[in-house]
Amino acid sequence: MIGLIAAVTPVFAQGADEVSAQTVITVLGKNNEAAAPVQERDLKVQVGGKSANVTDLVPLRGDRAGLELVVLIDGSARTSLGTQLGDIERFVKSLPPTTSVGIAYMQNGAAVFSQPFTTDKTKALESLHLPNGSAGSSASPYFCLSDLAKKWPSTDRENRREVVMITDGVDPYNLRFDPENPYLQTAINDSIRAGLIVDSIYWHDQGRYDRGLYQNNSGQSLLNQVSQVTGGKSYWQGLGNPVSLSPFFDDLGRRLQNQYELGFEVKAKSKPEIATLKVKLTMPDTKLDAPQKVAVVPGGIAHK
User: Fold this and answer.
1) What Rg, from alpha-carbon coordinates, does the chain have?
2) Cα separations (Å) of 221 from 16, 23, 71, 206?
3) Under a CB-based contact definition with an 8 Å cutoff, are residues 100 and 159 in contact?
4) Is 11 helix (H, G, I), strand (E, B) or coil?
5) What is the pTM of this model?
């Protein structure tokens, strides 16, 4: 699934007219397995409709495997999510030592953590519990994503930033499917600025406040858009809940092991701007998940 928008990290001015920028791409082979190593020459990049020079391609493994990952759980999911806590726990424990983990809950429009990021997976899981179950307690899940992006609990830009949202994606303030939903677009833009890759797992909130088929389909579509926009992936199994989240987490684990930091040059701007981005991979038997838009900052402000 190819994303629609993603944040880049401008680094430094190349000259009066260019700045260097990076973003994260995911490359997988057949059956979502690891592909052959990708080289800079295998990629073609366009920014704003013009060819851009690829300056760097770094596999995010080894000493570049650093990752900050937040599992963001809908606070109104209630006890229906209890059957999946074991799968979440197994996923967190499977993450490599280089991954810092935080577990947060969508509560009243905010992403609420019980402790800071930690590489100690057992300690991270101490904050995993059933959601409080109050219908609507998450407000809009997109409020919560914006809050997380604005208050990301780390300033280390050497690491990737990944979010796994577990929610039905329904925005109670706009129940119809509206790709221009202002709360959705704000969450997307905030995620872009923070450099977040947002994956989503659709979990239908089963309870006395169940929403209708149309509204749940709308929520699923909005989650898909957020994930595409930020270069992540959206997981679902129809409009019902899966027996297990393990297949989704297994696939996500493979994605995390097959990501690259792509560096390229962009034309300098006088003010912050979103530009179109097209990334093409010329290797056979591979698939690329890449952003289609980037945030360009004047002067290539150093984040790394």
Assistant:
1) 19
2) 42, 24, 20, 18
3) yes
4) coil
5) 0.88
Structure tokens at 30: 């057949």
Token pair belonging to 301: 């402000």
**Residue carrying the six token digits 């209890």:** 82
Token readout for 159 is: 């690491």
Contact 129, 110 (CB under 8 A): no
User: By C-alpha distance, which of 38, 53, 9 is closest to 289?
Assistant: 38
Q: CB 155: neighbour CB atoms within 10 A? A: 6
The runs of H, that is alpha helices, within the chain are 85-94, 121-125, 141-150, 182-194, 213-230, 246-256
3-class secondary structure, 22: strand
Residue 50 region by backbone torsions, left for phi larger than 0, else alpha for psi between -120 and 50, else beta:
beta
How far apart (Å, rounded) are the C-alpha atoms in residues 123 and 296?
37
Q: How far apart are the C-alpha atoms of 81 and 184, rounded to whole Å?
A: 24
3-state helix, strand, coil in the chain (%, to 5): 30, 30, 40
How far apart (Å, rounded) are the C-alpha atoms in residues 203 and 25? 26
Q: Cβ contacts of residue 206 below 8 Å, gap of 6+?
A: 78, 80, 241
Structure tokens belonging to residue 297: 């900052």
DSSP conformation class of 241: P
CB within 8 Å of 220: residues ≥ 6 apart: 168, 169, 202, 234, 236, 239
Cα 230 vs. chain centroid, distance in angstroms?
6
Instruction: Provide the angle, in degrees to the nearest 10, between the axes of the packed helices 141-150 and 182-194.
Output: 20
Q: What is the pLDDT of residues 116-135, one digit of tens each?
A: 899 999 999 999 998 876 55
pLDDT digits (tens, 9 = 90+) for 58-90: 999 999 999 999 999 998 776 678 889 999 999
